[in-house]
Amino acid sequence: MEKLRIIIADDERPAREFLKAVLREFEDAEIVGEAENGADAVELIKQLKPDLALLDLRMPEISGLEAVRLLRKSQMPLVAFVTAYDEYAVQAFEVNAVDYLLKPVEKARLRETLNRAHERLEQEDWRGAEAENVKNAAETYQTTARAEYLERIPVKRREEIFLVPVAEIASIIADGELLHITTAKNQKYIINYRLKDLEMRLAPDKFIRLSRGVIVNLEMISRVSPMPGGTYLIALQNGQEIASSRLQSRVLREKLFKL
């Protein structure tokens, strides 16, 4: 049996190390690369052309789903998404025949994924089928999860709780374990929450990452100025100016700046 050339992408190092340790127990698995974010995963896939990509569903800046949607059909590997239990993700993957692994990943279940990958590689136009399945899964996930998107964020100040409408938020900036929320009227709030987790509860057609620690409301963007090195300076309607990272600038160009 030929070896499957595999890349792993997960923003948490222990998760990557665990997957690598289990994969090394299989004689038909060869780990050819690893990434700690979605943007790097996209570049690795383009460069290394793996047979199979094991992608964490939730990664900063670019999720696993977004990463593979940035690939052309000719660049598409087989994909298995690795995720903590998420009812909507599981439903989307099962309905659209996309493989997934639930954390903590079990050796026997990973073996099934490798066996399935061998079988699928023998099918004609497997890249086209995989690209179509992932696209449909992403659309299904976005549609079914929409009901769970936040409309208000509760913020505690002393003994009072303020309900901040999500539609009025201009930016969310991470500072360690704290998130600084600024509204369109420049009201400022602080909550203790992980940006990665909050991002999954915000509508992806309304909010976008500018860098590892910054999310902005698309409707609040008033001007985009190109900067040296292929990055952008994003001006918001409330007067904030925030630079995009190099990684996320690529996503902005792909998703927003093309007619």
Structural class: alpha/beta
Strands, count: 15
Estimate the helix proportion, in percent: 25-40%
CATH secondary-structure class of the largest domain:
Alpha Beta
- The coarse overall form would be globular
> In total, how many domains does the architecture comprise?
2
Can you offer a commentary on this structure?
By secondary structure, this protein is an alpha/beta fold. It has 2 domains: 4-147, Rossmann fold (3-Layer(aba) Sandwich); 152-255, OB fold (Dihydrolipoamide Acetyltransferase, E2P) (Beta Barrel), CATH 2.40.50. It is built from 8 helices and 15 strands. A 5-stranded parallel β-sheet has the order 2-1-3-4-5, with helices on both faces. The protein has a 5-stranded antiparallel β-sheet with strand order 10-9-8-12-11. It has a 3-stranded antiparallel β-sheet with strand order 13-14-15, covered by helices on one side. Helix 4 packs antiparallel against helix 6 (126-145). The N and C termini lie far apart (45 Å).
